[in-house]
Known about the structure:
CATH topology of the largest domain: 2,3-Dihydroxybiphenyl 1,2-Dioxygenase, domain 1
Oligomer: single chain
Number of domains: 2
Strand order of the largest sheet: 2-3-4-1-5-8-7-6
CATH class of the largest domain: Alpha Beta
CATH superfamily of the largest domain: 2,3-Dihydroxybiphenyl 1,2-Dioxygenase, domain 1
Structural class: alpha+beta
Strand content: 25-35%
Amino acid sequence: MNIDHIHFYVEDASRWQKWFTQTFGFQQIATHRTAHSITVELGNSAIRFWVSSPCSQASPIAAYLQRHPAGVADLAFQVASLETVLQRAVEAGTTVLQPIQYSQSRQQKTAQIRGWGDLQHTLIEPTHASSPANPDRFTSDRTGSEFIGIDHVVLNVEQGDLERAIGWYEAVFGLQRRQNFAIQTERSGLCSQVLCHPGGSVQFPINEPASSTSQIQEFLDWNRGPGIQHLALRTDQILPLIAQLRQRGLAFLSVPMTYYEQLGQRPGFQLSLQEWQAMAQQEVLADWPPDNPQALLLQAFTQPIFDQPTFFFELIERRTYRLEMPYGQNHQPMRTADGFGEGNFRALFEAIEREQIKRGSLR
């Protein structure tokens, strides 16, 4: 199972189409208009976003935006067997929003179900071999090519709902538990469980607040319910990319210099002075397993992109390294850093706490 596209509901699709093309360098693929809505498809050869806005109050998008601020309304998955997933969803008591339909032009079968809260999941089974973003639609491989894929998507749920949400995604999609985190500071906390699909690229962390002052609870309050907090865009050149994005006006969460001073004291620290200084300048977080410092994970987080402090983007680079082989074996297979970096997770939590303090929602 893989992510096919991310569908945003916003007040003005044209404005956000310009934002994504100017900021991320994405191409506009297609525009669809109905009597009640406008939808723009955009992206690159590996990532596809849909951005929709209402044209009338009769639009379901208008109804959604009355209940929630702008954000991700639909997380669409490519699945191997649409009928199997739909049957599991029905057995789990899920509402089917759209039965199975076949599109000759796109050569795919689709259906739609209600996910957790008001989140929707469009299910897509391609009827021909293609990549998620249909790269033949793009005129240039260079446009937006700094981003090489969607690494993961994060869902926030109400306190006490984490285990139920995990169980639902396990039952319907066959996701499996991986890392889990419990972050607690002097001011607030959260619990998180990472889910992954054993036969695909989907990585889906789910968070719940561990206190009434938690940033997860703040998201739930502003979002007026559970929803997608952020998604991570993967790159293989995070430092120059962030420098470019800053020049294009994208704001990032600040990281104190003390973080980088402590980073240099961690076991396994192998960064060069030049790279350490570049990371501090661009406010990039770094993490690695103590016993394998080559498995380097680099992350940075934007400020919320909409008016409310809800949805934001993460940029992530997973360094590739050679596995150490027994003496005498010449072949050293390559591997990519995995996981989510427990040290980075806490640093992100503390960075958002500092933004909460600025907003006056955390004392």
